[in-house]
Amino acid sequence: MAATLKDIAKAVGVSMATVSRVLNYDQSLSVGDETRQRIFTVADNLQYSKNKRRANVPVAKQKLAIVQWYSESKEQDDLYYMSIRMGIERQGQAHQFEVTRIFQNDTGKLDADVDAIIAVGKFSPQQVENMATLTDKLVFVDDDQFEAGFDSVLTDFKLATEQVVAYFWQQGIQDIGMIHGVEMTTDQAVEVPDQRFISFKAAMTKRHAFEPSHVFQGDYTSQSGFKMMQQAIKTLGSDLPRAFFIANDPMAAGALKALQAANIKVPEQVKLFSFNDTSLATFVYPELSSVRVATELMGATAVDLIVNRLKTGRTVPQRVELGAQLMARDSTK
């Protein structure tokens, strides 16, 4: 027997109305990311499909594959990429795609007859080439492959970072540190630099205020943020910057914990401004100021680019860069 909304609601412990609105990607619904993900997970496990009752008229759907560079378990720890994927799935559903998910960019699991691919994350030239052999309807999200000839959907890191630096500058704070990350593509072929750090260095250098000793590099996890802030406190002592720009919310949460453990008050002594603005930013105390990235719109835009290629036969690549919004909260007030 096919799973129902009632089955999912009972398993998750929410109302049927909540399940229905989540599965229909109702963005006006106020529900936590964890609950939202549990609903999708249970729906997947129960093999729920709201289209099963409409199976009387067979429809040949085009196949859209989402290739994630994260594993499924790691994605659940990084709501940034989860939100992008949800945006893709929502828009893909609206355009009647048959959507499949490939985690940890295991392209060996891709169907040879896939019509289009949206690749989310960072990819090496060889990984890009492997996907391009399957389809020319290929869009990258959060990875600039425009010069390689592929559609790319990105966030304007440069402007957003400039706005953060200007925000502190307006508060009279010119000693600003940064905690950022570095990663490798999953085939270990390419090191991926943090574009936020590149933009931060440029913004501070322009103001003749960049100080290399105030920059600490980790790996984007909360544990790394904690360790990097501990290192900053130990090595800089009384010269600890009055503000830090931190590359993502998990690292910022870890940094906040390290400051609190050292009895350094936030924001009175040190202010923190994070990036991505996932729900984690408001789960900690004090709540984190963070740059809000239009993650779901990034995913939806990637689908729109696929649709445009399919409908028009466009072969010229497009590069779409979305803006971001500064959300000032208690960690900088």
Automatic annotation (TrEMBL):
<dbReference type="InterPro" id="IPR000843">
    <property type="entry name" value="HTH_LacI"/>
</dbReference>
<keyword id="KW-0805">Transcription regulation</keyword>
<dbReference type="GO" id="GO:0003677">
    <property type="term" value="F:DNA binding"/>
</dbReference>
<feature type="domain" description="HTH lacI-type">
    <location>
        <begin position="3"/>
        <end position="59"/>
    </location>
</feature>
<dbReference type="Pfam" id="PF13377">
    <property type="entry name" value="Peripla_BP_3"/>
</dbReference>
<keyword id="KW-0804">Transcription</keyword>
<dbReference type="InterPro" id="IPR010982">
    <property type="entry name" value="Lambda_DNA-bd_dom_sf"/>
</dbReference>
<dbReference type="InterPro" id="IPR046335">
    <property type="entry name" value="LacI/GalR-like_sensor"/>
</dbReference>
<dbReference type="InterPro" id="IPR028082">
    <property type="entry name" value="Peripla_BP_I"/>
</dbReference>
<dbReference type="Pfam" id="PF00356">
    <property type="entry name" value="LacI"/>
</dbReference>
<protein>
    <submittedName>
        <fullName>LacI family DNA-binding transcriptional regulator</fullName>
    </submittedName>
</protein>
<keyword id="KW-0238">DNA-binding</keyword>
